[in-house]
Design a protein that fits this description.
- The protein contains 11 helices and 13 strands.
- The chain has 398 residues and is an alpha+beta fold.
- Among the domains are: 73 residues, no CATH class; 126 residues, Phosphorylase Kinase, domain 1 (2-Layer Sandwich), CATH 3.30.200.180.
- The strands form 4 sheets. Strands 1-9-10-13-12 form a 5-stranded antiparallel sheet, covered by helices on one side. The chain has a 4-stranded antiparallel sheet with strand order 5-6-8-7. It has a two-stranded antiparallel ribbon with strand order 2-11.
- The protein starts with a helix and ends with a strand.
Length: 398
């Protein structure tokens, strides 16, 4: 799904850049070599426009290739259904049988498959909704869905009682802090930031734009400069209700509070970075050696190059897969388009099964859709989630 507002914004900025170049020439070079300066400004503008068009073409080509790859995998799946008469062949085994491993099942059908009709609202609150500068959250997202974290459970410490999260993220965070309290006696984790409504994000954006206004005489330049510092409404990770900014805090204890200044150098921060995935959270915006030394830079995928202490709930199965693959959310969703059916094992035991399917119709136009799932008896939990890219990902826990 492309964010049309962002594409129009980029195009407008490019057109403004050409106009600004011409105005700059007019004030500085009009008395010397008008023809040459005009030609140079025109060439600069055409070059910028060409680069923009090439970028858009590359994005569209990659999206198209991803869809072709998925279609090919889906065809294999359909063939498998026909050949096996509705069932699966024997799955391949994990390679070592030790630790966490992923087995690619893209050539295998989903066993004992059935379908059900689900409401689109039920598909976007449990983990995989992609929101970034290229993909705005769905217009039908319900701002009333996130809940007050403090009201949800008094054990969840928050910077202030206005902080909200979706219940799925709040429940996972409660499990995490309960475990660290029991195992290590740590009770200093606090949620510093949580959900923002569309209106709240819009207010932040407008306030930043007003502060920058005196520096820019051109509205297009001002808008572009603002977007570099504050996400456009609907494109912030905080607009999902699935992300939180943790901190360490203990009233009157400067030893604990000082550790927050170097969060990922503290014992608690290091533990969180290494273990959050077991509770369904991933560090959202990895950079080179951040949050910890050895981290690979993923800014070329996430589009974020700032050090943002943000953990995102994606669900335990998806977090386990992302941890095994060392992928950010954008990479993982691309991976699922290429490997539409996978199984996750821990020490040789099947823990999760994940498969991807296309959305039937458009969720923007239809309030319900058909979802494939499995009726195998040994599944203990099963969830379907929308990725905001036109697919539904079904996760089965064993």
């Amino acid at each position: 799904m492309k964010n049309s507002f962002i594409i129009v914004l980029v195009a407008t900025i490019l057109l403004a850049a050409g106009g600004i170049g011409l105005l700059a020439w007019n004030s500085a070079q009009s008395r010397t070599d008008a023809a040459a300066a005009t030609q140079k400004a025109q060439e600069d503008y055409e070059k910028a426009l060409q680069e923009y068009e090439e970028t858009i073409q590359q994005i569209e080509a990659q999206d198209e290739q991803n869809q072709l790859n998925y279609a090919a995998a889906k065809q294999k799946y359909d063939n498998e259904i026909a050949e096996a008469n509705g069932g699966n062949k024997v799955w391949p085994k994990p390679v070592s049988g030790e630790g966490w491993e992923i087995v690619d099942l893209s050539e295998f059908a989903v066993d004992q498959e059935s379908t059900r009709t689900v409401d689109r609202q039920d598909l976007i609150y449990n983990g995989l909704l992609l929101v970034n500068q290229y993909h705005s959250r769905p217009s039908w997202y319900d701002d009333e869905k996130p809940v007050s974290v403090h009201t949800y459970n008094k054990e969840l410490r928050v910077y202030d009682h206005s902080i909200k999260l979706l219940e799925s993220a709040a429940a996972a965070w409660l499990e995490l802090i309960t475990d660290v309290s029991t195992r290590y006696g740590w009770n200093d984790f606090m949620i510093n930031r949580g959900y923002r409504t569309y209106a709240e994000q819009e207010k932040l954006f407008n306030e930043k734009r007003d502060k920058l206004r005196s520096k820019y005489s051109n509205d297009e330049e001002l808008l572009a400069a603002t977007a570099k510092e504050v996400n456009l409404p609907g494109t912030s990770e905080y607009n999902t209700g699935l992300s939180l900014w943790p901190r360490l805090y203990k009233s009157g204890d400067e030893t604990v509070n000082e550790k927050n200044n170097n969060f990922f150098e503290s014992e608690e921060g290091i533990w969180l970075e290494e273990n959050a995935w077991q509770y369904g959270f991933v560090f959202r915006f990895p950079l080179a050696d951040y949050p910890v030394r050895g981290t690979q830079d993923k800014s070329y995928k996430t589009g974020i190059s700032s050090k943002i202490r943000l953990f995102r709930y994606v669900g335990k199965a998806n977090a386990a897969a992302m941890n095994i693959l060392d992928m950010c959310l954008e990479e993982y969703l691309e991976y699922l388009q290429q490997h539409w059916h996978i199984a996750i094992y821990e020490d040789g035991e099947l823990r999760y099964e994940i498969f991807l399917q296309d959305v039937e119709g458009s969720l923007d136009d239809n309030e319900t859709t058909t979802v494939r799932y499995s009726t195998k008896r040994d599944i203990t939990n099963q969830e379907a989630m929308y990725d905001n890219l036109g697919h539904i990902v079904t996760v089965m826990e064993y």
